[in-house]
Amino acid sequence: MQIDVSSLTFPKKSHRKVITFPNESTLLSEFLGIVIGDGGINNGWQVVISLNALKDASYAEYVSQVIKKLFNLTPAIRKRPNQNTLVVVATSTSLVDFLISKGAVRGNKIAQQITAPQWIKNNSEYKKFFVRGLVDTDGCLFIHTHMVNKVIYNNLGLCFTSFSEKLIYSVAEIFSEFEIRAHIVKKQNIFLYSAKSVEKYLDIFGSSNQRLLQKYYLWRDARAA
Question: Taking a C-beta distance cutoff of 8 angstroms, is the pair 130, 33 a contact?
Answer without folding.
Answer: yes
